[in-house]
Design a protein that fits this description.
The complex is a heterodimer of chains A (235) and B (297). Chain A has a single domain, classed as Rossmann fold. Chain A has 8 helices and 5 strands; from the N terminus they run αααβααβαβαβαβ. Chain A has a 5-stranded parallel beta sheet, with helices on both faces. In chain A, helix 3 runs parallel beside helix 4, helix 3 crosses helix 8 and helix 5 packs parallel to helix 6. The termini of chain A are far apart. With 297 residues, chain B is of the alpha/beta class. Chain B has 2 domains: 156 residues, Rossmann fold; 118 residues, Rossmann fold. Chain B has a 7-stranded mixed beta sheet, sandwiched between helices. In chain B, strands 7-9-8-11-12 form a 5-stranded mixed beta sheet, sandwiched between helices. In chain B, helix 8 packs across helix 12. Classes of the chains: A alpha/beta (235), B alpha/beta (297). At the A-B interface, helix 5 and helix 6 of A face helix 3 and helix 5 of B. Chain B: Pfam families: Transket_pyr (PF02779). Chain B: GO terms for molecular function: magnesium ion binding.
Chain lengths: 235, 297
């Protein structure tokens, strides 16, 4: 595949994302889930993450791990908009020769830090990435991981969040996109699970860009930080 | 004599001093042994608690960040319990690491079946790209560990056991079976700590004995070079684990393979290692009888 250079790239804005997602047509069944993540992903890549196609191989880059690999169309649209690959790749979504599957593969998708699809792997991998950066004295890069509220059903997440708080992984950030799709819900709230384990937590409207930005950039010294981004319930 | 696990702790503690890329990830097993190393390298010796999915995921995440993780607990909790993490977090993400297990198949029979892992090597056989070392002596464990940690970004499994041969053999770490006895009429492949029992068993049989401290990749070329089409495999884990590999090595020749190892059926017995070896037919007397019967002698 080709990756457009910075110079040739037309700047894309939030208003282009719908069209980019529209290029990925076919039998994909995760459309609503894909859009639940769109605003959080856009604000993160547009205003918070310090990574570009040019710095995607740098040791000191910020890392974003998409744990909820179902419905990656919003993710691919944002990566295309930010120049990690050209939009001409999008129509092939899910086809044999396409790098863009219905779950992302980090070996195929430029800019993808992990392959995902099986739920509950991203947060443990993010914990390890944060540990690995800290062990190398790389205190600056931030590690971000995006999960879904139903994905939190997987026990591996609870192993990871219960460890990350006491370990003081203050460069670790989780986003939980909450479209109320967990079968048994989260009585008492999602944020409370993280707070009980020593995380800093904020719960915001997952469609409100300023609220997302404020929550993403809130200081959280000495603790990992979670942003619960609430969106309309999954139909 | 120290155990393989003692040697693992000592060797890896030195590797932490020597190589800033090395990190150790633990899950409440062997943490006392690593306490001194942890004081020297608090950010490179991590204990995640009793959380084996996180153990593997965090180890793989450290590899994603550029480290060489050494991940350790009992075999049943390192390979079997978090198997999907091993498959995806290392394999699918295509990162390297060294998984080091203790307790093997029958190291603690009084602990019962929950702490036995005869199926670990067979499980790893379903995955691509894992090197599997099964040292037969603490000295071999040290050599193989050093090789594994220095082995680029390869995925390596090191299976430690309390069962040990009386003498260490020279191991290279890059695979390869070595002939410890030349004979006629058949080849017996002894894996790791099974060697002493095998040598006792075949003392009166005219057979070639190959020693395998590294079983994956399987050294099919050495098996062919031994020159016999009657082959007996003696493995300290699930019987028949390497039978397919031996068959593949001899695919173009009429041949016979007998795969000996730990039985699949639960014994539901406690006791000690010698009793379990006898129950699985892996003591010297049982091996003599089974190998002799297979070879018609």
């Amino acid at each position: 595949m080709t990756t457009q250079t910075h110079e040739k790239r037309t700047p894309y804005g939030y208003e282009d994302l719908g069209r980019l997602m529209g290029l990925m047509t076919g039998a994909e069944k995760h459309g609503p889930a894909a859009t639940s993540t769109l605003d959080a992903l856009w604000v993160l890549y547009d205003r918070v993450l310090r990574v570009t196609p040019e710095t995607a191989g740098d040791r000191g880059r910020d890392r974003f791990l998409l744990s909820k690999g179902h419905g990656p169309m919003a993710y691919y649209a944002v990566l295309a908009a930010k120049g990690f690959f050209g939009e001409e790749v999008l129509p092939g979504f899910g086809s044999y020769d396409s790098p863009l599957g219905h779950h992302p593969d980090r070996l195929l998708v430029p800019g993808a830090e992990i392959g995902s699809g099986s739920l509950g792997h991203g947060l443990p991998l993010a914990v390890g990435t944060a540990l690995g950066l800290r062990a190398q004295g790389l205190r600056d890069p931030a590690v971000w991981v995006l999960l879904g509220d139903a994905e939190l059903d997987e026990g591996s997440n609870h192993e990871a969040l219960a460890f990350a708080g006491p370990a003081g992984l203050d460069r670790l950030h989780a986003i939980v996109v909450d479209n109320a799709s967990a079968t048994h819900g989260w009585p008492g709230g999602i944020a409370s699970r993280f707070e009980a384990a020593g995380w800093s937590a904020a719960t915001v409207d997952g469609r409100d860009h300023e609220a997302l930005y404020a929550a993403f950039t809130a200081p959280h010294p000495g603790r990992p930080h979670v942003v619960v981004a609430r969106v309309e319930p999954k139909k | 004599m120290d155990t393989m696990r003692d040697r693992f702790i000592a060797t890896t503690s030195r590797l932490l001093d020597e190589d800033p890329r090395v990190a150790v990830v633990l899950a409440d097993i062997s943490t006392d042994g690593f306490s001194a190393a942890r004081r020297r390298h608090p950010e490179r010796v991590v204990n995640v608690g009793i959380r084996e999915q996180l153990l593997i995921g965090a180890g793989a995440g450290m590899a994603l960040a550029g480290m060489r993780p050494v991940v350790h607990t009992f075999a049943s909790f390192l390979v079997e319990r978090p198997f999907e993490q091993v498959k995806l977090d290392f394999g699918h993400q295509d990162v390297g690491g060294v998984l080091v297990s203790a307790n093997a198949s029958y190291d603690w029979p009084a602990g019962g079946f929950t702490h036995m892992s005869p199926g670990d090597v067979a499980l790893l056989d379903t995955l691509d790209g894992w090197t599997v070392h099964v040292p037969g002596h603490p000295d071999e464990a040290e050599a193989l560990l050093r090789h594994a940690v220095a082995d680029g970004d390869e995925r390596v499994y090191v299976r430690l056991s309390l069962q040990s041969n009386a003498q260490a053999r020279e191991v290279r770490g890059d695979g390869g079976f070595t002939a410890v006895r030349q004979g006629r009429g058949g080849t017996v492949v002894a894996v790791g700590p099974m060697l002493d029992n095998v040598l006792d068993a075949v003392a009166s049989l005219d057979v070639t004995v190959l020693y395998a401290a590294t079983v994956r990749p399987f050294d099919g070329a050495a098996l062919r070079a031994a020159g016999y089409t009657d082959v007996v495999l003696v493995e300290p884990y699930l019987a028949g684990t390497s039978t397919a590999a031996a068959n593949d090595a001899l695919a173009d020749l009429p041949h016979r393979v007998l795969g000996l190892g730990v039985g699949q059926r639960e014994l539901r017995r406690y006791g000690d290692m010698a009793e379990h070896l006898a129950a699985h037919g892996l003591d010297a007397a049982s091996l003599r009888e089974r190998i002799g019967a297979f070879l018609g002698r």
